[in-house]
Design a protein that fits this description.
alpha+beta, Umud Fragment, subunit A, 8-stranded antiparallel β-sheet, 4-stranded antiparallel β-sheet, 3 helices, elongated
Length: about 200
């Protein structure tokens, strides 16, 4: 009887150790991938309609700012200025408390952005005239007070495609490159919208 109990105890410890090894191995694989390479993102809110809706399930490429140039028309996930946090929690893979937004790049570093009669105008560095921005992806112009600002070397002006229901750089100002989490590279849900680089638009300028 004692031998049976001893055997069961050994088997239990062996199984527990095996499960622990699998768990540790999974963490070794998953944490670097999620922290440095990709991360899931669930869209919430109407700010990017009609291109992204609540519950759209996306995979974010976190290497975007390190491996490729950010262009006008890119859709990015980022931490807005009011959510910047210097606590150690921001380095957590699963418990990052900061809210993330998904918006589209409207203005690039060193450009001057002018909003007039709810339309966006861009003046690039070294140029004298503003050019009206063509935005075929937006749902509506919304309502914005006329404003003008110059973006710094590492700043981007972000806008929602549904301007009437979007809290974006018109409200909280430009974001920094360090605020950017990544770019959606895959849309998994809904299935009828599944695809790579969802709703990306190339302005060619």
């Amino acid at each position: 009887m004692n031998d049976d109990k001893q055997t069961k105890k050994i088997n239990f410890l062996s199984e527990t150790l095996s499960i622990l090894k699998i768990f540790i191995f999974a963490l070794i694989l998953i944490i670097p991938v999620k922290y440095f390479l990709i991360e899931p993102f669930l869209v919430s809110g109407a700010s990017m309609e009609p291109n992204f809706y609540t519950a759209n399930y996306l995979i974010i490429n976190k290497l975007k700012t390190k491996t490729s140039e950010i262009k006008r028309g890119d859709v990015l996930v980022f931490v807005p200025p009011q959510e910047r946090d210097n606590t150690l929690w921001k380095y957590s893979v699963y418990f990052d408390p900061r809210k993330k937004y998904i918006k589209r790049v409207v203005g690039l570093p060193k450009e001057t952005i002018k909003i007039e009669n709810n339309k966006f105008y861009i003046k690039k560095e070294g140029e004298e005239k503003f050019t009206k921005l063509n935005e075929p992806y937006i749902k509506n112009d919304g309502y914005t007070n006329d404003q003008e600002l110059i973006l710094k070397n590492d700043e981007y002006f972000m806008g929602g495609d549904n301007r009437l229901q979007s809290k974006d750089s018109r409200v909280f100002g430009p974001i920094k490159k360090s605020d950017i989490m990544g770019e959606p590279i895959i849309r998994f849900l809904p299935f009828n919208k599944m695809g790579f680089y969802p709703e990306k638009y190339n302005h060619n300028n």
